[in-house]
Amino acid sequence: MTTQRPSWRVILSDKFALLSLAFLAVMTICAAGAGVADLYSLRPPGAMDERPVQKVEASKLVDALVATNVALRLDPGNPSYREDRARLDYWEAERSGGARKAELLEDALFQIRKAIRLRPVSPYGWSTLMQVKMSLGEIDPEFFDALDNASTLGPWEPEIQRAVADAGLNVWGMLTDTQKGKILDDFKRGMKRQSAEMMRIAMRNRIGCIIRSGKYACN
Q1: Residue 168 in contact with residue 186, Cβ under 8 Å?
Q2: pTM of the entire structure?
């Protein structure tokens, strides 16, 4: 019995189907990337240090989350998408309450830990971990490691300066003198470029004397 070879029409049809799938995948990645890029355009000023984040529209958070989830399915090993997902969960958690908030924070914690394992040199990853841990009330060695790494890896990043100052001043009474010195250094760097924001953070945490005296012997 002879084997019938597929016709050229069948071969072209199969190739067209494969090309269509490849094109669809590329377009999906582009759409996901655009959605993730929109995440940064919808971020309000001071988003990494505001608690809670109320200025971001819920519909935009949902759209960004959908795009990020698509991107993660296509590229699960991409640390940027993991960071984006963790930040989205954190922002939504700060708008939520009860069991929903706890669920979102736990997912943010899962996502940001994976992102850090994939890219341990990102100050934004450590900063997000620090913020999520603070929202969970988990002021533990992992929190202090995140605080230190965020400051060390991103000393001149404005958002990192704000987030580190906010977290550090929030737990001021729990810090060692060495840790307080690092937070003060971060604060001084921030005052050079964004003094109004840094003073607002200090006032919110009731550490006004840190500005006037330049010392960290404040309670």
Answers
A1: yes
A2: 0.74
The residue whose two tokens read 């001021």 is 172
Provide long-range contacts, Cβ within 8 A and 24+ apart, for 167-175. 167/130, 167/131, 167/134, 169/201, 169/202, 169/205, 169/207, 169/210, 170/134, 170/205, 171/134, 171/139, 171/143, 172/205, 172/207, 172/218, 172/219, 173/219, 174/139
Query: Do 67 and 133 belong to one domain?
Result: yes
Shared domain for 144 and 86, answered yes or no, is: yes
| pLDDT score at 44 | 40
CB burial of residue 12 (10 Å; 0-12, 13-18, 19+): exposed
Same domain, residue pair 32 and 82: yes
Domain that holds residue 198: 155-219
The confidence score (pLDDT) of residue 217 equals: 47
Residues 97 and 179 in one domain: no
Domain count, the chain: 2
* Residue 42 CB neighbour total at 10 angstroms: 15
C-beta atoms surrounding 181 within 10 Å: 12
